[in-house]
Write a structure and sequence with these properties.
single chain; t-SNARE coiled-coil homology domain-containing protein
Amino acid sequence: TEQMGRIVNELDTINFSIKKASQLVKEIGRQ
């Protein structure tokens, strides 16, 4: 259904944000 697609899309966006955030944390931790 369309609602499922929207939920999956939201989760995808959240997952992407978490990946970007953890990359930033690694970068900061290296300094």
